[in-house]
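User: quick one, fold this
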Amino acid sequence: MEGLIGKKIGMTQVYDADGVRTCVTVVEVGPCPVVQLKTPENDGYSAAQLG
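Assistant:
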């Protein structure tokens, strides 16, 4: 599984070269290391513990 974990900071808008406006969400993404992996064989379920 791939993805990001972050905190929503707010909304803003950006303009492209043709002047077309696009609304965007500003997200703060920081370090989020995986500290433990749970497996069905050992734990009865699959999970990733973040810390």
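User: anything notable?
Assistant: Residues 6-50 form one domain.
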